[in-house]
Amino acid sequence: xxxxxxxxxxxxxxxxxxxxxxxxxxxxxxxxxxxxxxxxxxxxxxxxxxxxxxxxxxxxxxxxxxxxxxxxxxxxxxxxxxxxxxxxxxxxxxxxxxxxxxxxxxxxxxxxxxxxxxxxxxxxxxxxxxxxxxxxxxxxxxxxxxxxxxxxxxxxxxxxxxxxxxxxxxxxxxxxxxxxxxxxxxxxxxxxxxxxxxxxxxxxxxxxxxxxxxxxxxxxxxxxxxxxxxxxxxxxxxxxxxxxxxxxxxxxxxxxxxxxxxxxxxxxxxxxxxxxxxxxxxxxxxxxxxxxxxxxxxxxxxxxxxxxxxxxxxxxxxxxxxxxxxxxxxxxxxxxxxxxxxxxxxxxxxxxxxxxxxxxxxxxxxxxxxxxxxxxxxxxxxxxxxxxxxxxxxxxxxxxxxxxxxxxxxxxxxxxxxxxxxxxxxxxxxxxxxxxxxxxxxxxxxxxxxxxxxxxxxxxxxxxxxxxxxxxxxxxxxxxxxxxxxxxxxxxxxxxxxxxxxxxxxxxxxxxxxxxxxxxxxxxxxx
Length: 527
Prior knowledge:
Blueprint: E1 46-47, H1 66-69, E2 76-78, E3 82-90, E4 100-108, E5 118-123, H2 135-140, H3 144-149, E6 150-155, H4 171-179, H5 187-208, H6 217-230, E7 236-241, H7 243-254, E8 259-265, H8 274-296, H9 308-324, H10 337-345, H11 354-367, H12 371-381, H13 393-404, H14 411-424, H15 436-440, E9 461-468, H16 474-483, E10 487-495, H17 505-517, E11 519-520
Parallel strand pairs: 5-6, 5-7, 7-8, 8-9, 9-10
Antiparallel strand pairs: 1-11, 2-3, 3-4, 4-6
Helix pairs in contact: 6-7, 8-9, 8-14, 9-10, 10-12, 11-12
């Protein structure tokens, strides 16, 4: 999911998925992460020296891109304390003559020029999440020492938001897509889903043109090196959440010598294939849902009675009811099972948002009214009260994911995965299935194969993982830290997607020390 991975903010909810709506697999995303930071050294830490002042890290500029690496940015005031610019990058890095596209960039400049170390690029996840829309608010929550040391830079990756963007369908059509096409477990439902996916893919190709085949993560990582150069930095300092960890790890693999201080929080495992990602996520959300019900039962206003298993059974019954007959809502748009699943999943990204789910479920369970659940699904997707959408995150998420990993849309393979999903997630798993249909209809073949990354030659990279992270399970952070030649794992014990700036002082101090001084937490540090 993307940030609030914020209801929509620094990584919206990494992408609430639904069996049909989710066919776009937003593996990992992240939504918004809370903002609270304190500083201080970590006991037992290891200091890593930064490059000596004035030492330029030489870099070979790819042939044909010399002018782009040397371009001068024109900054204009935007927001309260931010300034914005457009950066030119090649449409196709392998063929610079094919033309150029624009990336939207927003920065909040260092508060102390004398203490400034450079630029810190931030990606909030998705894929498909904007990095410009929320960067100023996010930066305001940083520790003052980090704000003094860095220009905080947000960017919309290629295909996303205010950059040259993927465009597919109008708002009304997107509403219909979100509502779903019926049960893909039946031959008729699967045929409808395939036909809908083919129509959507054709619309994306017609509206977006050649860009649709160039929004993969490898291309986006190459864009980061142009951003590094035009911002005047010899090395890239970077903080990525959720999908942003895959983007960051890809950059480190491509440009190890230019990799500076990297923090990869709520990490994805680059070696995990599509079925592995969805199985892990389904299990993570199932675990979080069980814990939510257990927490809810003793509280006033909780719509469940009896045991945890009985509460989970009520939620599953509600989903099956919405699948058989969508629930009515005050606004007239029915609550389908796809929308209901999105609504249930959204608050599970962050345990501090569980309270939002309780009244919405109570309204649906006790009164057959899907209004509050549909409102949650709209928040996740960025749908405004007037029916317009805040950004193109839905379309961009699909386009990026379909290029990033192969999907097996053979009906037998999807049925086998469906069976496994129901084993690992008895309540939710059935509606996580058949995700592969959309990418199976995509007009461009994947350009990336899941594989480990080692970033050999890069400096130390700090990987942060939460033991109760729903969207990017802790095992993924362990795997990424182990794959990287110089990876270092910092563990947060607790629920929720993402760890930095979520109120855990231990994590915040460790990340701050690393960003400011290159000080790594001691091995096996647990917060």
